[in-house]
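Q: what sequence does this backbone want?
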């Protein structure tokens, strides 16, 4: 399926059967640590604010510093994996993330924590950007690859809800510092296993693909774009002068990047990669579906907390059904569905289930019952995500050349991260605006309902994109 080239002659695909699966578990462990960190921090934010004296506005930087570094560097990190060797970049990311996690846990000031979170974002980008590219080289056979991607998709998508539970337990039982310290043993174990279990890959070398101006342009554009979404757009509004100015600057940088890549001898991102309808369509679907799903996990948590009165631990437990259902489908059944029906049909079916679940959430009332109004929604989200995301990951990599696997992996991750940040900012803004300034439970619920409906519409658009643009691939 993914034939090796001279520059990639020692890819992990040469590993034996058992060691390949052990290597996959190592990759998934690294990914789980990265994904958990996103939501585990959200649960601990009130405790962090009280301990370090953050204001409500400055507290956002505990999250934003990570998102800006992570989202801004994913694409570059993926390409560095192709050039320097994906194993090298993966291990380097684990080292940076683990050290930065300890730094976060030891933070005794606002500035120290924010800087450490930015460093965590760098490590997270290096680690996660190359994982999907490593999986498709580890498992070139279609059936095994579908199963492996199913496991990866489960960790990448369901790990967030596990983070809610872990964050609640650690914060309430010990202290917020331990949401970061817990990464130390996991990170060290993942590094040791990666060194032992994952074979070295040579990479293309910095002589092929080195494009410093392109790297500067795309990293600056993505970081500025994420910053614009999570800061001025969320706080000042989408039509504010500062928001518009930064958005225009982001677009200008992106245009300059495209021009650079079209004319560079060794582009960072060869534009030929977008000739694949599956790759291009998968990235659009990833951005749209992430916008709907990530925003709803955030707003759904607020509904449970502010309207139904749940505490942090109860919120984590409430989202467990999504994790369980998604894990069961991703690990046990996604490979069978993709093998029997191809990836396109499961993708569309799964996205439809997600859209229905989001639409159903608009019916959750002020005095809602978890069993009647929340559990069915979370079950549908788990069903849809467990079916759709493994198929989407497979389609995104189906027509990619081996030498571009890291780039494609970083690209799909970047679109998911930017889509999630954009979705969160838009949906949270819409929910707040729709309350008309009222803090009553009914007004809050109405605001959430409006955002749930918009999220359902966004995911419905992703269904149309998948139906129109995605096509069965000769490699699947």
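A:
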């Amino acid at each position: 399926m993914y034939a090796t080239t001279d520059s990639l002659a020692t890819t992990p695909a040469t590993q034996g059967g058992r060691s390949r699966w052990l290597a996959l578990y190592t990759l998934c462990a690294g990914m789980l640590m990265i994904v958990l960190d996103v939501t585990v921090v959200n649960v601990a934010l009130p405790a962090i604010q009280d301990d370090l004296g953050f204001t409500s506005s400055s507290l956002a930087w505990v999250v934003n510093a990570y998102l800006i570094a992570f989202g801004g560097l994913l694409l570059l990190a993926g390409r560095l994996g192709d050039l320097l060797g994906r194993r090298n970049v993966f291990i380097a990311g684990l080292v940076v993330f683990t050290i930065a996690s300890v730094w976060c846990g030891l933070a005794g000031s606002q500035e120290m924590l924010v800087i450490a979170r930015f460093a965590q974002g760098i490590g997270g980008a290096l680690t996660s950007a190359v994982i999907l590219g490593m999986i498709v080289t580890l498992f070139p056979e279609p059936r095994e690859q579908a199963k492996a991607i199913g496991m990866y998709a489960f960790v990448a998508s369901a790990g967030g809800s596990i983070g809610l539970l872990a964050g609640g337990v650690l914060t309430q039982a010990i202290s917020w510092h331990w949401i970061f310290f817990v990464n130390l043993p996991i990170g060290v174990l993942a590094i040791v296993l990666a060194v032992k279990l994952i074979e070295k890959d040579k990479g293309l070398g910095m002589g092929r693909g080195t494009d410093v101006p392109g790297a500067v342009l795309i990293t600056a554009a993505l970081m500025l774009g994420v910053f614009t979404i999570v800061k001025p757009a969320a706080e000042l509004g989408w039509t504010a002068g500062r928001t518009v100015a930064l958005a225009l600057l982001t677009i200008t940088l992106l245009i300059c990047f495209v021009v650079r890549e079209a004319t560079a001898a060794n582009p960072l991102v060869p534009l030929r990669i977008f000739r694949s309808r599956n790759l291009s369509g998968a990235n659009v679907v990833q951005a749209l579906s992430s916008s709907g799903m990530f925003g709803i996990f955030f707003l759904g948590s607020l509904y449970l907390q502010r309207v139904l009165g749940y505490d942090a631990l109860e919120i984590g437990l409430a989202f467990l059904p999504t994790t369980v259902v998604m894990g069961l489908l991703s690990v046990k059944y996604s490979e069978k569905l993709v093998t029997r029906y191809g990836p396109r049909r499961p993708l569309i079916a799964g996205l439809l289930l997600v859209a229905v679940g989001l639409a159903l959430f608009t019916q959750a009332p002020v005095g809602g019952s978890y069993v009647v109004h929340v559990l069915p929604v979370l079950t549908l989200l788990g069903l849809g995500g467990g079916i759709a995301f493994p198929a989407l990951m497979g389609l995104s990599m189906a027509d990619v050349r081996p030498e571009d696997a890291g780039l494609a992996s970083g690209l799909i991750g970047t679109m998911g991260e930017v889509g999630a940040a954009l979705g969160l900012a838009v949906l949270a803004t819409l929910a707040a605006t729709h309350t008309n300034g009222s803090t009553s439970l009914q007004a809050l619920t109405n605001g959430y309902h409006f955002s749930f409906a918009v999220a359902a519409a966004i995911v419905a658009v992703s269904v149309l994109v998948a139906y129109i643009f995605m096509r069965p691939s000769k490699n699947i």
